[in-house]
Amino acid sequence: MSVIKKVLTTVAIGAALMGTSASADTTRIALVVKALGIGFFEAANKGAQEAAKELGDVEIIYTGPTDTTAEGQIEVINSLIAQGVDAIAISANDPDAVAPALKKAMDRGITVISWDSGVAKEGRQMHLNPSSAPLIGNTIIKLAADHMPDGGDVAVLSATATSTNQNIWIDEMKKVMGNYPGVNLVATVYGDDLADKSYREAQGLMATYPDLKAIIAPTTVGILAASQAVTDAGKIGQINVTGLGLPSEMAGAVESGATISFAIWNPIDLGYAATMLSYNIAKGATAEPGAKIGMGRMGEATLDENNEAAMSDPFTYDKSNIEEFKSVF
């Protein structure tokens, strides 16, 4: 997180506390991210701002902790409760740890949804998955297996050990490993969505598993760090780094060959959809199993028995389309 961004965020929150940042009829929606300074979430904020402009009577408070911790998010949530925001849309660092604070927010009449990385049911009204968990799980292993015709060892470099979404995707990946004969998962390590730690973890994987053929990172921070580690180790062509990443950040890795292909949904769309859902629920839409809630240009979210919905399918990026998308997000 830059100093300027931290100052701007603090000023925005301070103005809201004084009641000067919005008129009485403005709906204030807090987009709470895992940590400030992460490209994926910066792109999600662009989508949230787009939705706010389209709706006309919405103010977005883009905020989050400086590190990917539940404790940091709880502090942010308590601050937002004190401000009396209308809605909180959160990508959680820990599904259970943040739930009590979010339940307190709901008890105060604040709409709460989770998106990207979920919250325990008692701590939110609905959860928006960026895509279908089984499809993501299959996609991330297929991206590796497609370039391993003779099979081989793969490892996972994830975010935090408690990250809801990454853990679900990894579990779904393991369920379909049998569909890819000869592909062997040797380890799962965690970089805590910190670039330097993710880089070191990737180095550790290469040192521990000399026959490693692929590193799968279902996190935008991890995939970029692992690509750099493979490049610095002179292992381009020997180890393929794949998973979920941002085209703007991964273009160099694709061009160099450190990454053959990767996938992601559009985080701009995700921030946009989360804002639209927060707004519609705050304005009276009922979040219950079977309900369809509008997401603006993204269509409708249909809630399942757990009050969860999927936004869209992931999309694969490679040398054939990276130039087109790297300037978008």
List the helices and strands and how they pair.
Elements: H1 3-17, E1 27-32, H2 39-55, E2 58-63, H3 70-83, E3 87-90, H4 99-107, E4 111-115, E5 126-129, H5 133-145, E6 152-158, H6 164-175, E7 183-190, H7 195-208, E8 212-217, H8 220-232, E9 240-243, H9 247-256, E10 262-264, H10 267-282, E11 292-294, E12 300-302, E13 308-310, E14 315-317, H11 322-325
Parallel strand pairs: 1-2, 1-3, 3-4, 4-5, 5-13, 6-7, 6-8, 8-9
Antiparallel strand pairs: 10-14, 11-12
Helix pairs in contact: 2-10, 3-4, 5-6, 7-8, 8-9
Could you characterize what this model shows?
- This protein is α/β, with parallel strands linked by helices.
- It is built from eleven helices and 14 strands.
- A six-stranded parallel sheet has the order 2-1-3-4-5-13, sandwiched between helices. It has a four-stranded parallel sheet with strand order 7-6-8-9, sandwiched between helices.
- Helix 2 (39-55) links the parallel strand 1 and strand 2.
- Helix 5 (133-145) packs across helix 6 and helix 7 packs across helix 8 (220-232).
- The radius of gyration is 20 Å and the shape is elongated.
- Mean pLDDT is 93; it is low at 1-21.
Name the features.
about 325 residues; alpha/beta; Rossmann fold; 2 domains; four-stranded parallel β-sheet; 11 helices; 14 strands; about 40% helix; about 20% strand; elongated
Concise summary:
With 329 residues, this protein is an alpha/beta fold. The chain has eleven helices and 14 strands. It has helices at residues 3-17, 39-55, 70-83, 99-107, 133-145, 164-175, 195-208, 220-232, 247-256, 267-282, 322-325, and strands spanning 27-32, 58-63, 87-90, 111-115, 126-129, 152-158, 183-190, 212-217, 240-243, 262-264, 292-294, 300-302, 308-310, 315-317.
